[in-house]
Design a protein that fits this description.
Layout lengths: L8 E2 H9 L1 H9 L7 H14 L14 H9 L4 E11 L4 E11 L8 E8 L4 E3 L2 E3 L2 H16 L6 E6 L4 E6 L2 H17 L20 H4 L1 H8 L4 E4 L29 E4 L18 E5 L5 E5 L2 E6 L2 E7 L3 E7 L3 E2 L1 H9 L4 E4 L5 E5 L8 H10 L2 H26 L5 H15 L4 H17 L39 H23 L18 H24 L8 E4 L2 E4 L1 H16 L1 E3 L6 E3 H16 L13
Parallel strand pairs: 1-3, 4-7, 11-15, 12-16, 15-17
Antiparallel strand pairs: 2-3, 3-4, 5-6, 7-8, 9-10, 12-13, 13-14, 17-18, 19-20, 21-22
Helix pairs in contact: 1-2, 1-5, 5-6, 11-12, 11-13, 11-15, 12-13, 14-15, 14-17, 15-16, 15-17
This protein binds iron/sulfur cluster (SF4).
């Protein structure tokens, strides 16, 4: 799986190796690349130098030492060549040189050349003036070495730092050559080993483009044994009610070996640096007008209805594009969105999540290999499934405690018991029974979180007509939802499944292979697994906000036979509320920093990936207090 020892190393990767061996491993071995502000700026600045033809005059024969002075004394014309690609078989490296300055005497001897590398930052301030950073030193040194290997006469090179507009020269010597060759050997050796550990409390991490994948401080925190506390799985709660699935009682039998369960806990006074951005600057675009046609014009999406332009959206602002019902997209727009890794997701008009189109994205296979290995092992599946179900039940309990007008003591007690029972369920069927019992207790009390018709008086529609309060909830029903509350819950779960599917892809998973949800055609089983813990705190919470803040009324719903659905106007209000919830900040239960719910989704998949690849010991759910 790791590149073999003969793999050609690009010079840029050696630069990453000197910056951080883990960054090198993630990019080169695991093939993970994520743009950040620095890399985007660097790519934009490189556009000009990358546009060159990359030609150099032929290197014929080496200049004799005695003739060198003559050459230096000649007033030679200086030529420039941009974007020059070179390779050395002996070293096993390639490099693309931004700019090469050439002095060719035309007398049949090898031209004298100097590589010039462009960097967006500033030089290092050393004791003796401005210096070249080590990461730049290896890159430039390697370029000189490659030019020499290809028979050009090259004694020095130069870095041009754009921020301060400074040129810093670097001479080539034997010490530099030895360091470069030792570094190449070390990098090549690292490709055959394990993923290196994250740097410790390093100032390099905040600027690293892969910080949101690497999660250096979070990983280190979770690797400390003191970060985990043992959970007493079953607290003997005195229940004055019958446990609903008596056959599955864990404090009666049949007894199984109860696994030791540990969950991470925040240590007082111990802060994990928040190095990931709290929220993304980009937004989702929802389009639900049947018959729309979307095409690309310059850097924008143009939406047309019956041939007339009805909207224009900048592609750079898009996080993803969600299409409801028959909306068409031009092939040119699909190409652009795939190229920029902006997914298009498709839903029925009723909100059923059909599928998605996306670019290649991550090509890393390591996480998926471990995912398939875990999914094939019933014991490992059960270990993960217990945590998903535990998180969901805990969050259901929290939502009831927060929002119920008279928090139901019995149900809260039962949910506490069931959450702990989930952690030690002896089998998947038992776990499903526990989860089902919790869902029953939760939805039996769901109506208590809806402000009654008395408190939420009947609303008025756009014609100022009084509308009846429509949000009477008895039980959960779906496919199709038969009342407005169920219509809201179904749509929220559908959007959340979509977001979990996207987050699973981004973290390198196959969303269709799960541990708790069994594989079924077209079902994103892993996305549904991780979604469990987020159902109450994202989806149910959005539905309750819309109802209790009277943002929707009966005129926002349509009825067809048994089925209830939102009107286009109602859907628009819903999408806004849903996106607002995903962007809203929440304190992470273990790392104690604020992130948006959307980032929290992504974070959970990244942590799950670290569990599967053995970097951290166990998955833990995202629970709120
Ligand atoms: S975040 Fe830090 S430890 Fe992780 S790859 Fe980047 S520099 Fe290395």
């Amino acid at each position: 799986m790791a590149p073999d020892t003969n793999t050609i190393l690009p010079a840029r990767m050696l630069n990453e190796f000197v910056y951080c061996p883990r960054l090198f491993y993630l990019e080169f071995v695991e093939d993970i690349f994520v743009h950040n502000a620095d890399t985007l700026k660097g790519a934009a600045q490189h556009k000009r130098v990358d546009a060159g033809k990359g030609q150099l005059p032929t290197a014929k024969k080496k200049q004799a030492q005695s003739d060198e002075k003559d050459i230096r004394d000649q007033k030679l014309e200086t030529l420039h060549s941009r974007s020059v690609s070179l390779q050395s078989e002996r070293l096993g490296v390639t490099a693309k040189l931004d700019l090469v300055e050439i002095k060719d005497s035309g007398n049949g001897y090898s031209p004298r050349v100097r590589p010039i590398e462009y960097k967006k930052g500033a030089p290092k301030e050393g004791d003796e003036g401005f210096e070249i950073w080590d990461t730049d030193r290896i890159q430039l040194g390697l370029q000189i070495l490659l030019l020499r290997e290809n028979n050009y006469t090259c004694e020095e090179g130069e870095i041009y730092y754009r921020e301060t507009r400074q040129r810093v020269c670097m001479a080539f010597d034997a010490e530099l050559e030895t360091w470069i060759e030792t570094t190449i050997a070390a990098a090549r050796k690292a490709t055959q080993g394990e993923r290196p550990p994250p740097l410790e409390d390093s100032p390099k991490c905040p600027r690293c483009s892969l910080v949101s994948v690497c999660l250096p401080d979070e990983t280190r925190f979770l690797q400390e044994t003191g970060a985990w506390r043992k959970v007493d799985p079953i607290q003997q709660l005195t229940l004055d009610m019958e446990f609903p699935s008596t056959n599955n009682r864990l404090d009666q039998g049949p007894f199984v070996e109860i696994p030791e369960v540990r969950l991470p806990t925040l240590k007082p006074g111990k802060d994990v640096r928040r190095l990931i951005a709290p929220a993304s600057d980009t937004r989702a675009l929802y389009l639900n007008t049947p018959g729309l046609y979307l095409s690309k014009k310059a850097e924008c999406i143009i939406a047309k209805d019956k041939g007339k332009p009805v909207g224009e959206f900048r592609i750079m602002d898009l996080q993803h594009l969600a299409l409801f019902g028959p909306v068409s997209v031009s092939p040119a727009l699909v190409h652009t969105l795939c190229e920029r890794d902006i997914p298009i997701t498709y839903f029925s008009m009723g909100g059923w999540f059909y599928g998605m189109t996306r670019g290649h994205g991550l090509t890393n296979v390591f996480t998926r290999i471990e995912q398939f290995r875990n999914a094939a092992d019933p014991e490992l599946c059960l270990t993960h499934a217990r945590i998903f179900a535990h998180g969901k039940i805990r969050n259901q309990r929290t939502l009831l405690m927060r929002n119920h007008m008279e928090p139901p003591r019995k149900a809260l007690k039962l949910l506490k018991y069931l959450a702990r029972s989930a952690l030690v369920a002896p089998s998947l069927p038992t776990l499903l029974g526990i989860e089902g019992s919790a869902a029953r207790a939760y939805f039996e009390n769901f109506s208590g979180m809806i402000k009654s018709a008395r408190e939420s008086p009947d609303s008025k529609d756009e014609n100022n007509t009084q509308q009846e309060f429509p949000f009477h909830f008895e039980k959960r029903n779906r496919r199709p939802p038969k009342d407005p509350v169920n219509a809201l819950l179904s749509l929220a779960y559908s959007l959340l499944a979509r977001d979990c599917t996207l987050a699973a892809w981004s973290a390198g998973f196959d969303p269709y292979v799960g541990f708790y949800h069994q594989p079924r055609y077209g079902r994103p089983a892993l996305a549904l697994d991780v979604m469990e813990e987020f159902r109450p705190i994202i989806a149910d919470s959005v539905a309750l906000t819309l109802i209790n803040n009277r943002m929707l009324g009966s005129h926002h719903f349509t009825h067809a036979g048994d089925s209830v659905n939102l009107t286009p106007k109602g859907r628009k209000i819903f999408f806004l509320a849903y996106e607002k919830r995903l962007q809203s900040p929440v304190t992470h239960p273990v790392f104690n920093y604020k992130v948006s719910y959307r980032r929290a989704l992504e974070l959970q998949f990244r942590l799950l990936s670290k569990v599967l690849t053995g970097e951290i010991e166990q998955y833990f759910p995202f629970t709120t207090r």
